[in-house]
């Protein structure tokens, strides 16, 4: 199968692949963020890119470039930006990076774009960047590209959630460093996971509001908001199949060829 990630294509091959304006380009959006003692800082970036590549192979799309500068970690969804290991970039940077990418892809001839978010906090700032780029393009007097924005975990089916969380699902906001991300990493990048280092702690109990500066003691000592002790590569396979299937359906519906 031909290469799908544009970072591994030369300029001539890239230009040929996007020349007809009908090739969907998937832009992964991750972060550099702590994910406990058992996983690396690049989890969100790795997983958004991996998922995008798997989906691209199914729908004939291209992937890249990955945005690695994610919005700063929030205590209720990522442990908080006070934790060393998380790199918190301002909203303006995420917005302008997204805006620039859409404008550049449009200049290259790409007319169908999907942002694949892998970091909970990014979504609204990616949305804003896309909205501003479409405004830029529309004001220039031409038809803008169609853009889809999605977070990959939203395509884990209810049946899959029930199967993998028989004791109850804690919610995506506290799944940071937990079963889902760890299972996906165990399947796709097992050498980067150390299950012996997992701190099997109770789920975080953080109030449904924010306090600034963050009260560090409200984040579990692991930096994770739920335990990854029950993670496995087998669960990663089930999750991957559900995510890829759901995203393929969406892209085929939104970008019919």
Describe the structure.
The chain is of the alpha/beta class and 257 residues long. It has helices at residues 11-18, 43-59, 75-78, 91-108, 123-139, 158-164, 179-188, 233-254, and strands at residues 24-29, 62-63, 112-117, 146-151. The chain has a domain at 6-166 and 239-251: Creatininase (Rossmann fold, 3-Layer(aba) Sandwich). The protein contains eight helices and four strands; from the N terminus they run H-E-H-E-H-H-E-H-E-H-H-H. It has a four-stranded parallel beta sheet with strand order 2-1-3-4, with helices on both faces. Helix 4 (91-108) crosses helix 5 (123-139).
Largest sheet: 4 strands, parallel
Q: Provide the CATH topology of one domain.
A: Rossmann fold
Number of helices: 8
CATH class of one domain: Alpha Beta
CATH architecture of one domain: 3-Layer(aba) Sandwich
Instruction: Specify the overall morphology.
Output: globular
Distance between the termini: 20 Å
Helix content: 40-55%
Taking pLDDT < 50 over at least 5 consecutive residues as the criterion, the unreliable ranges are: none
Oligomeric description of these chains? single chain
**Could you name the CATH homologous superfamily of one domain?**
Creatininase
User: Given the helix and strand composition, which structural class is it?
Assistant: alpha/beta
| Proportion of residues in extended strands | 5-15%
Per DSSP E runs of 2 or more residues, the count of β-strands stands at 4
């Amino acid at each position: 199968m031909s290469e799908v990630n544009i970072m591994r294509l030369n300029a001539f091959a890239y230009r040929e692949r996007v020349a007809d304006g009908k090739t969907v380009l998937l832009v992964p959006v991750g972060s550099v963020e702590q994910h406990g003692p058992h996983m690396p800082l690049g989890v969100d970036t790795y997983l958004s890119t991996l998922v995008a590549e798997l989906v691209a192979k199914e729908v004939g799309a291209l992937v890249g470039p990955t945005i690695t500068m994610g919005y700063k970690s929030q205590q209720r969804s990522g442990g908080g930006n006070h934790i060393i290991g998380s790199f918190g970039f301002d909203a303006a940077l995420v917005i302008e990076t997204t805006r620039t990418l859409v404008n550049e892809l449009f200049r290259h001839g790409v007319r169908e774009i999907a942002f694949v978010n892998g970091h909970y906090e990014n979504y609204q700032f990616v949305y804003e960047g896309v909205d501003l780029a479409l405004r830029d393009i529309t004001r220039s007097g031409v038809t803008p590209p169609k853009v889809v924005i999605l977070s990959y975990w939203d395509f884990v089916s209810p049946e899959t959630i029930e199967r993998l969380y028989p004791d109850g699902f804690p919610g995506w906001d506290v799944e940071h460093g937990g079963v889902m991300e760890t299972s996906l990493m165990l399947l796709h990048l097992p050498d980067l996971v150390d299950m012996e280092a997992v701190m099997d702690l109770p789920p975080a109990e953080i109030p449904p509001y924010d306090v600034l500066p963050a009260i560090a003691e409200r984040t579990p000592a692991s930096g994770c908001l739920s335990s990854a002790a029950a993670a496995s590569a087998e669960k990663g396979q089930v999750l991957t199949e559900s995510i890829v299937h759901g995203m393929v359906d969406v892209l085929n519906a939104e970008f019919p060829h």
